[in-house]
Amino acid sequence: MTEPSEGELSRRLASSRRDFLRTAAGVTLGGSVLRSPLVRAANLAKTKKVIVVTFGGGARDQETFAPEGQENVPNMMRELIPRATFFTQVVNRGILGHYVATASLATGVYETINNFASLPPEHPTAFEYYRKALRRPSSDAWVVAPSNGFNRIGESNHHSYGLGLGARVILPKYLLKAAISGPSADYAHLLRDNYETPYYTPELGGNEFELEQLETILKLSVDNFKVHARSLSSPDELSLSIVRQLMRQVAPSLLWVTMHDIDIAHAGAYSLYIEGIRRTDRLCAELWKAIEQEPEYAGRTTLLILPDFGRDADSDSGGNGFQHHRTGDALSRTTWLMAMGPGIREGVVFDRAVDSTDLVPTLGAILGFSPSLAQGKPISEVL
User: Fold this and answer.
1) Global pTM?
2) Distance between CA atoms of residues 311 and 321, nearest Å
3) How far is Cα 112 from Cα 125, in angstroms, rounded to an integer?
4) Residue-wise pLDDT tens digits, 58-89
5) What is the pLDDT of residues 243-296, one digit of tens each?
6) CATH of the domain spanning 6-382
7) Measuring CA to CA, how many Å separate 14 from each of 18, 109, 315, 353?
8) Nearest to 35 by CA among 366, 328, 376, 276
9) What helix, strand, coil percent values describe the chain, rounded to 5?
10) Using CA atoms, how far apart are residues 35 and 42, in angstroms rounded to an integer?
């Protein structure tokens, strides 16, 4: 018997997600949508802010959207998906490393930079396109990322963009390190930086700048920040706390949040992997509630949630199951996308193939910029 192709495996995975979501979450199967320029312009006028969340670290269907995994994503199943347009087949054709995959999502081009080097993306990011085209200040585009390896994600080294045109980046763990003087045992659970390569810690400097971010931009005293951080249980909770404060104090129009707790799977502890999925599910729901509660965001924000990639199948002899994402098989490459906000259809699922590089052109269509070097195309169903 001929083995199914990777494309066929991706389609089968998308179909299983679709069938399960139609039954469990009460969504309907969407058809193709063609919208006129007038409708698109009207939506652009109403949708002035975008928040992107990468469901970072990758999670397999059997622990999320398959019948046996739905208990791990109750907030998505009950609160978010019924209010969203859901795409069951988002294919990542690039390198499956967290930094380089996130850089590819942010540029709309499959980046080939070293995943474990402190390097900027080689192609312009959505933040640079947005700020240059619309002449927006640096305060209007931000990235919140839990890993210090993401400190270069906000700005490329492209000769036509780059220096001074990117997003401002907040690294909550580094912010916490800057605020701590003396022993940090009380915060050790928030400070572990990289689960895939625990010995990789890029050199970062500028404690004074970090504390300036804390006090001047976020309006938090060092003491209050430390007390609040001590009450949190994970790096992603710390990130969401920073995101909420950023929304209140700065209200950026383009905000990118990278979740990373799920990546504890690299440690080989299945229970911690499941805990990471459940926490990320909860934090995504909390973020949507914050969007609805903040006057600057309520009724005018598009929320896009998607993983950077998946994880290996248990049946693949070349991988390590849930622990890693090394094989490049269909399960590692086929993820999903959830879109919510004004003008976006609720409770609808699409199983046509979407490419990871389609994200940036979609952001451009929503916010009004043209990502001329991106490889993908806008996802018409969310415009």
Assistant:
1) 0.90
2) 7
3) 14
4) 888 888 888 888 999 999 999 999 999 999 99
5) 999 999 999 999 999 999 998 888 889 999 999 999 999 999 999 999 999 999
6) 3.40.720.10
7) 6, 23, 18, 8
8) 366
9) 45, 15, 40
10) 11
